[in-house]
């Protein structure tokens, strides 16, 4: 059944994307809004019908539930709304897709379509909305047909979208929950986290890494209740969804913030798909470093959480806000990186997010953050100061180096740091998983992904604090300090020297082979240099 509904859902996504392309919006900056909102509209329409049929045997027995629902009196509908789960939007008969289908012949169908979407958003804004740091409500839906430049094509475009929705139903997927919708969500937004996804695209977190972070933070605990989880650079919410699933969606509340409007729309979709509607009010759009929204009860200090996860931008141009950030030394105790003179976008802004994550942990809180692998051996500047502090204060209790090319649009090697603010760990687990994973092609990009058995190996080794040859070590903080604060597992592995007995003749042959190979490299280098010089002369004369 899962395979069937999954393939049908993927077909629906593909058909919506094809419709956008037909009407001139393939790879358009607004395409993601149309795809995600129409997909969400269909999901909520079917979710409403599914819950309605569970509540009313008469509607469940009807040939068409939409007709049976439309025939109810207003009082009966209000009674249903009172009993309906808050996670389900309140839809009127005129909001249903079937009603849109019946009005397609009207010439102003584009206006009818947009009005339907915005009316649903208005009537459900109390629950189904996110907000900015300035407390501006961001509604569930916005007018979509306006993105079609040609006025005459807007009504046909709206009809084409509705055509794709009527013969599909999500109902059999509702019992699948996270495992189903995590894969569907990843497929839904994949085109917006590659080359056309903008600067934030490269920070989309692969599902495997999100799973490892969640499993290691939560462990095997089953006694968790009223847990608060936070991501200050939430993006589309992959880390938070994996964490909430591990804890139990009904046992935790999600808090998030991200500067990107695009990410906020996708995060909203992700929360709704994964039965986390009650957390929508805590999904904030805005600059976390300059204006952190989530505060403690006094409104002054940062709110602190049980679990904090983050996959921040590693390098980005924050030059416009750098001085505002630097004016908060209590928050950024290890310092704020300088803005490079020639390449402003290479500012190491991730160091500020590391400090923010640590500041946001309860006294017993745990956290995990994705960092460039180079940070594990940092010696100078803000990076070196920060690494030293994390080790000396016993905050960091683990680091895992991931395979290269695991991210959507960057070749940066990444690692994951794990924090425990109780500071009770006696040893730090360091794992080198850089040689794991299988290679695959994603368009023109060579990628690598971790397989399930490799994820299990990483998790079990970490939780058991095992030392595995050329893979993992468990070292004391004193040992780390002796290694100049390095969190790179490879620097703690035993160096193995292989001794081979050779006769004088065999030794001479090997030396001659090395000499021949070196001479070949020198000759090739000289030839290449001569060719370059010749080309430079031609350019000069031209």
Radius of gyration: 28 Å
What do the pLDDT scores average to? 89
Specify the CATH architecture of the largest domain.
3-Layer(aba) Sandwich
Q: Please bin the fraction of helical residues.
A: 40-55%
Share of β-strand residues: 5-15%
Largest sheet, spatial ordering of strands: 2-1-5-4-3-6-7-9-8-10-13
CATH superfamily of the largest domain: Vaccinia Virus protein VP39
Write down the CATH class of the largest domain.
Answer: Alpha Beta
Output the structural class: alpha/beta
CATH topology of the largest domain: Rossmann fold
Distance between the termini: 68 Å
Number of helices: 18
What does the model show?
- The chain is an alpha/beta fold.
- It contains 18 helices and 13 strands.
- α2 packs parallel to α12 (261-273).
- It has helices at 2-22, 31-55, 57-61, 65-70, 74-83, 97-102, 109-123, 154-165, 178-189, 207-218, 238-247, 261-273, 322-326, 350-359, 381-392, 452-463, 477-482, 504-541; strands at 130-132, 137-138, 227-231, 252-258, 283-285, 305-310, 361-372, 396-401, 414-420, 427-432, 438-442, 445-449, 472-476.
- The chain has 3 domains: 2-174; 187-492, 3-Layer(aba) Sandwich (Rossmann fold); 499-542.
- The strands form 2 sheets. Strands 2-1-5-4-3-6-7-9-8-10-13 form an 11-stranded mixed β-sheet, with helices on both faces.
- The chain is globular.
């Amino acid at each position: 059944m899962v395979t069937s509904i999954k393939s049908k859902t993927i077909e629906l996504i593909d058909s919506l994307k094809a419709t956008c392309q037909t009407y001139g919006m393939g790879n358009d900056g607004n395409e993601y809004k149309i795809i995600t909102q129409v997909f969400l509209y269909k999901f909520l329409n079917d979710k409403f019908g599914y819950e309605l049929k569970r509540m009313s045997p008469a509607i469940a027995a009807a040939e068409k539930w939409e007709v049976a629902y439309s025939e109810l009196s207003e009082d009966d509908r209000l009674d249903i709304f009172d009993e309906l789960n808050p996670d389900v939007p309140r839809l009127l008969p005129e909001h249903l897709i079937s009603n849109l289908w019946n009005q397609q012949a009207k010439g102003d169908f584009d206006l009818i379509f947009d009005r339907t979407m915005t009316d649903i958003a208005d009537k459900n804004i109390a629950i189904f909305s996110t907000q900015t740091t300035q407390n501006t409500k961001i509604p569930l839906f916005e007018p979509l047909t306006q993105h079609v430049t040609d006025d005459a094509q807007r009504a046909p475009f709206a009809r084409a979208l509705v055509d794709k929705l009527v013969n599909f139903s999500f109902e059999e997927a509702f019992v699948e929950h996270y495992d189903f919708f995590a894969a569907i969500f990843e497929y839904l937004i994949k085109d917006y986290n590659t080359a056309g996804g903008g600067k934030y695209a490269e920070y989309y977190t692969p599902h495997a890494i999100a799973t490892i972070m969640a499993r290691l933070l939560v462990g095997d605990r089953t006694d968790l209740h009223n847990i608060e989880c936070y991501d200050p650079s939430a993006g589309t919410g992959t880390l938070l969804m994996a964490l909430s699933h591990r804890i139990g969606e009904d046992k935790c509340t999600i808090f998030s913030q991200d500067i990107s409007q695009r990410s906020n729309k996708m995060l909203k979709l992700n929360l709704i798909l994964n039965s986390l509607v009650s957390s929508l009010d805590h999904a904030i759009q805005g600059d976390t470093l300059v204006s952190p929204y989530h505060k403690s009860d006094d409104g002054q200090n940062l709110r602190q959480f049980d679990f904090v996860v983050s996959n921040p931008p590693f390098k980005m141009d924050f030059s416009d806000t750098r001085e505002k950030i630097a004016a908060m030394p209590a928050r950024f105790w290890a310092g704020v990186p300088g803005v490079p003179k020639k390449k402003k976008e290479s500012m190491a802004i991730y160091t500020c997010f590391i400090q923010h994550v640590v500041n946001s942990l309860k006294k017993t809180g745990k956290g995990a953050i994705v960092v460039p692998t180079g940070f594990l051996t940092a010696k100078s500047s803000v990076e070196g100061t920060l690494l030293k502090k994390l080790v000396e204060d016993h905050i960091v209790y683990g680091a895992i180096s991931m395979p290269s090319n695991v991210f959507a649009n960057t070749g940066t090697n990444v690692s994951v740091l794990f924090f425990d603010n109780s500071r009770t760990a006696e040893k730090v687990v360091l794992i080198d998983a850089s040689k794991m994973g299988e290679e695959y092609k994603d368009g023109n990009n060579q990628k690598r992904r971790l397989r399930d058995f490799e994820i299990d190996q990483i998790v079990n080794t970490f939780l058991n604090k095992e030392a595995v040859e050329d893979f993992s070590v468990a070292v004391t903080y004193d040992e780390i300090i002796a290694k100049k604060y390095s969190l790179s597992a490879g620097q703690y592995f035993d160096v193995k020297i292989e001794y081979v007995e050779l006769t004088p003749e065999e030794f001479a042959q090997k030396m001659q082979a090395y000499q021949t190979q070196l001479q070949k490299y020198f000759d090739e280098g000289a030839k290449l240099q001569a060719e370059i010089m010749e080309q430079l002369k031609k350019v000069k004369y031209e």
